[in-house]
Amino acid sequence: MAEKQEQPQASQNGEKAENAENAENAENAEEAEKPQELEELPPFEIVTGERLPAFFFKFQFKNVEYSSGRNKTFLCYIIEIQGKESKTLRGYLEDEHAAAHAEDAFFNTILPTCESGLRYNVTWYVSSSPCVGCAEQITKALKKNKNLKLSIVVGRLFMWEEPDIQAALKKLKAAGCKMRIMKPQDFEYVWKNFVEQEEGEEPKAFTPWEDIQENFLYYEEKLAEVLH
Ligand SMILES: [Zn+2]
């Protein structure tokens, strides 16, 4: 499992480090303002919101092969609920791999129940593919809720060389979960729809990083091998 690694290499880059720190301080400040009874809750470091800071997107979603320092999972979700009235919900979750995982938290906090009579089409854009525990939780949720369809689009594959991870991903597929690797266009989609943009300014264009296409092809091939 994701050993806790060093914080983003932010420290190598003064400005980015500051941004990351500010973002964390802002989170802490918000925490401090919450009612005190929250202090008794176990550490459940899940952050939810509508749009994530650009710094986190650029760092956490990068589809590099070596994911050092990327010890969180960022999960952007779109839930389309079809019934008499259809509606769409969207937002994001992030976790600290030491505590609860974003995938698990999604089913606990965002979509704890699926009402029968409604259809749920859920799409996740996740920075990396699920660990064994989360894959099992997702598989359970899909088996329990036949009216739930889930597509997972992942930036990177998490420990895909491990046989237990491969087995968990295969089970996920067998349970009906669609999984694919984020293409450059998917990163752009997340950038436009889930990343904070400067207020009152035109959204900044997405700037792909070097190797974005090569890395996508690399992971796509690995995923095909795992799921064959
Ligand atoms: Zn997990």
What does this structure look like?
The chain is an alpha/beta fold. It has a single domain (45-197, 205-227), classed as Cytidine Deaminase, domain 2. Helix content is 39%, strand content 19%. The protein has seven helices and six strands, in the order H-E-H-E-E-H-E-H-E-H-E-H-H. The protein has helices spanning 14-33, 54-60, 102-110, 132-144, 163-174, 184-194, 212-227, and strands at 47-49, 74-82, 87-94, 119-128, 148-156, 178-181. A six-stranded mixed beta sheet has the order 1-3-2-4-5-6, sandwiched between helices. Helix 4 (132-144) packs parallel to helix 5 (163-174). The longest helix has 20 residues, at 14-33. It starts with 13 loop residues before the first helix and ends with a helix. It binds zinc ion. It comes from Podarcis lilfordi (Lilford's wall lizard). It catalyses: cytidine(6666) in apoB mRNA + H2O + H(+) = uridine(6666) in apoB mRNA + NH4(+). Residues 52-172 form the CMP/dCMP-type deaminase domain. InterPro entries: APOBEC_Cyt_Deaminase (IPR050610), CMP_dCMP_dom (IPR002125), Cytidine_deaminase-like (IPR016193).
